Amino acid sequence: MSTILFLLQGEKIFYPAGRDISETTMIFDSIPVGPLSVNCYIVGCEATHAGIIIDPGGDVDLISKRVQKHGLTIGTIINTHGHFDHVGGNRQLLAASGGARLLIHHADAAMLAMVAHVATMYGMNGENSPSADDYLTDGMLITCGDLQLKVLHTPGHTQGGCCLYFEDQLKVITGDTLFADSIGRTDLPGGSHDRLLESIRSKLFTLPDNVIAYPGHGPSTTIGHEKRCNPYF
Ligand SMILES: [Zn+2]
Ligand SMILES: [Zn+2]
C-alpha cells in the first residue's frame, strides 16, 4: 500500500533555500468540521498573515480558534462547491471575519441559499449562506499575501465544482472531485460521472506526480498515486 498519509494538523511548508520566494512560509492547516467531517483548510502567508479559509462546513468556533492561533487575518473564504456540508459555516465565519469576501463558482452559487432546506432533507440543521461576492472561474489566480492559488474548474460532482492549486507549494485542494483512491459521487443534482472523469483527467492528472492532493473528506494523497492506483481510471 503506497498511499502516503500526511499529517495535516499544523503542517508548515518551508521553501528550500535559493528559491525566489525562499523567505515565504506557507501556513497550511486542516480541521474536520461539521456532521459529515468536511476537511476545512486554513491557508496563510506567514510573512503577511493574510489568510484564506476553504470549505468552512461548520464548527466555526474551532476554525476561528485555529485562525487566531496562526495569527491570520482572513480576507477570503472559498467554497470548492455548493453542498451544504462545505458551506454551512459561511455565514458565521463571514460575520466573525468582518470584511472577508466569499467566492464560489457561478454554477453552484444558487446552492448557497438552499443550505437549510437541503440539510433538513438529510435530517440535519444548516444555515443559509450569504451570497457570493465574486465568482470563481477556470484559470483565475487568487493571491493571499505572498501566496498564489490557481482555480481549476472541475465539474462532475457538481456543475460548479472547483479545485484550488498552489503551484509553488505543490498542493491542490480537491473538494469532492478527487479523494484518496476514490472520486466524488455523481448521483446528486448536477452530477455527471463522465464529466467528473474528464475533469480529473484533464485538470488534475496533468499536474506533476508529486503534487499532494487534499480532498474534502478523508486523507490526503498524491496525484502520482491516484494516476497509478485510483480504481475509477
Ligand atoms: Zn459535495
Ligand atoms: Zn462533501
The whole-number mean of residue pLDDT values reads 91
Give the cofactors and ligands: zinc ion
CATH superfamily: Ribonuclease Z/Hydroxyacylglutathione hydrolase-like
CATH 2nd-level architecture = 4-Layer Sandwich
Class in CATH? Answer: Alpha Beta
What is the strand tally?
A: 15
**SSE class:** alpha/beta
Order of helices and strands: EEEEHEHHEHEEEEEEEHEEH
Question: What's the helical proportion of residues?
Answer: 10-25%
Strand neighbour order, sheet with most strands: 1-2-3-4-5-6-7
Q: What's the overall geometry?
A: globular
CATH topology: Metallo-beta-lactamase, Chain A
Report the radius of gyration as a whole number of Å.
16 Å
Q: Tell me about the largest β-sheet.
A: 7 strands, mixed
Q: Beta-sheet strand percentage?
A: 25-35%
The rounded distance between the terminal residues' Cα atoms is 18 Å
Number of helices: 6
User: How many domains?
Assistant: 1
